[in-house]
Amino acid sequence: MIKPVQKSGYDYCLLVPHLVMHLNRNVTAATYNILGQATATAIMGKLGLNVGDELSGFNPNMTESEVSAYLGNPLLEPDKKSSEIQPRL
Q1: Is 78 inside a domain boundary?
Q2: What is the residue range of 17's domain?
Q3: pLDDT one-digit tens code per residue, 70-83
């Protein structure tokens, strides 16, 4: 019997997981702000396939002006595909 590969990443400062590999080898990542609140999640698919979401370049600690700008116009980039839009909240 082949054992499934399971991988995880754990943030010991906030005591939360930031990278989880499920039994079917799909990877899910999460980012948290300084208060430990989840700010974004990404379902990244299987490792090595480069499909799904990614969190590279995402800033989990947004300033008040960045939050206000997004809430003022959440559809600023409607013609981009969902994979091209940087998550904001």
Answers
A1: no
A2: 8-72
A3: 788 777 755 554 55
